[in-house]
Amino acid sequence: MLGLILFFVGAVLVLNGLWLLGRIADNEIALIDIMVGTLTGLACLYLAFGPGADAGSIRAAALTLLFTFTYFWVAWNRSNGADGRGLGWFSLFVAITAIPVTIDSFHAATTTWGLWFAWCWVGWGVLWFLYFVLLTLRKPIVKFVGGVTVFVGIYTGWIPGYMLLSGMPQ
Questions:
Q1: For 92-128, how does the pLDDT look when each residue is reduced to its tens digit (9 = 90+)?
Q2: CA distances (Å), origin 71, targets 83, 90, 100, 104, 168
Q3: Is the pLDDT of residue 58 over 90?
Q4: Angle CA 75–63–148, to nearest 5
């Protein structure tokens, strides 16, 4: 399931980055955010309440829901014209949450995949902090954030998601 989720997280991040760079219209970007939010939300329900649910899968669901809510919030803001400050504050919450998750991921890493995944959390934490700076602090860094979003989408989602879908061992 992780390969599927990461692959589409990569897609939504790349497309949201292109949207921030002005390559996709406001009224068009919501579709991918709703689709990936739904996909990750369904995965979270299975992880948290499915037949194999345990403390580890519930933790994975809770952390994945950080992504799910972000995507739904982006879609919501595009449909109602919100300025994004609420999403910015949520992004700060997620960026702070990513700090101990990153530390835990590095401590638990015993494989190349584990190290890669820890670095993914670094990228996601930085990205959510940049969204806070952009949306809440109103700093004029939209093009920079768009470029970073595309980059993070490629190295934390698209590439590892495709590799896992292609049979790469974890």
A1: 999 999 999 999 999 999 999 999 999 999 999 999 9
A2: 15, 12, 22, 25, 27
A3: yes
A4: 60
- How does DSSP assign the chain, residue by residue? -HHHHHHHHHHHHHHHHHHHTTSS-HHHHHHHHHHHHHHHHHHHHHHHHSTT--HHHHHHHHHHHHHHHHHHHHHHHHHHT--SHHHHHHHHHHHHHHHHHHHHHHHH--SHHHHHHHHHHHHHHHHHHHHHHHHTS--S-HHHHHHHHHHHHIIIIIHHHHHHHTT---
Burial group, residue 87, by CB count within 10 angstroms (0-12, 13-18, 19+): buried
Report the C-alpha gap between 20 and 10 in whole angstroms: 15
